[in-house]
Amino acid sequence: MAGFMFIASVQDIVSLIAGGNLYITSEEERKNVDMLYNIIIKKHITGMYIPPKMFTVMRELYGRLPLNYVLLGGEKFKGKYPMDGNLLETYASSESFISLMHRTGDGDPYMLGHPVRGVQVFLIDESGKRITEPGIVGELCVVGPYLANGYNNLPEETAEKFVDCPFPSGL
Questions:
Q1: Across 37-171, where does the E strand assignment appear?
Q2: Average pLDDT over the chain, rounded to whole?
Q3: Is the pTM of this model over 0.70?
Q4: Can you tell me the distance from the alpha carbon of 59 to that of 65, in angstroms, rounded to the nearest whole number?
Q5: Bridge partners (DSSP) listed for residue 72
Q6: How many Cβ atoms from other residues are within 10 Å of residue 108's Cβ?
């Protein structure tokens, strides 16, 4: 579903490493719910990344999708099918590969989820102190191997945002 220039494409491409196959949709197929559903059926697709709005439309039209897993990302999922099989909502930023992933339907609409293996996350306030109490707004900081090395050709922004973790990370 994701174009090659979009970070979400990595989620689908990684299936090749595990010995899977990858069906690459055309621009037209990605935007057409009927075409996409027919591809899932005819090509025996077992899992995919899909934006939540597209998933909701497909689910409304065709019922539960015949997939082993569905990764939702790119926007907050506000659907009514939270425990629909192996439905996972992902959260990440352009600075990291998927750093948070959780099963939807945990009951807390504000919960981002739990870090994947090898990743830690911290929430910090404006002064740089770690936030540990619930309900306080802050900036999400990620520590782990899936981070970029910095912003391309933006050394000042890289120096500002890509800093050593000031908290014990345990990684």
A1: 47-50, 69-72, 87-91, 100-103, 114-115, 120-124, 139-143
A2: 79
A3: no
A4: 7
A5: 50, 89
A6: 10
Residue 48 and residue 36 in contact, taking contact as beta carbons nearer than 8 Å = no
Contact 72, 51 (CB under 8 A): yes
**46, 61 contact by CB (below 8 A):** no
Q: Which two tokens stand for residue 93?
A: 């930023």
Identify the residue whose tokens are 């050709």.
Answer: 153
In this structure, the chain runs to a length of: 171
How far CA 61 is from CA of 9, 43, 56, in Å, comes to 25, 19, 9
**Tokens 């491409």, located at residue:** 13
Measuring CA to CA, how many Å separate 113 from each of 15, 28, 69, 95? 22, 33, 17, 18
Structure confidence by residue, pLDDT tens digits, 125-142 = 988 899 988 778 888 888
Alpha carbon distance 41, 46 (integer Å): 9
Instruction: Give CA angle at 142 (136, 146), nearest 5°.
Output: 155
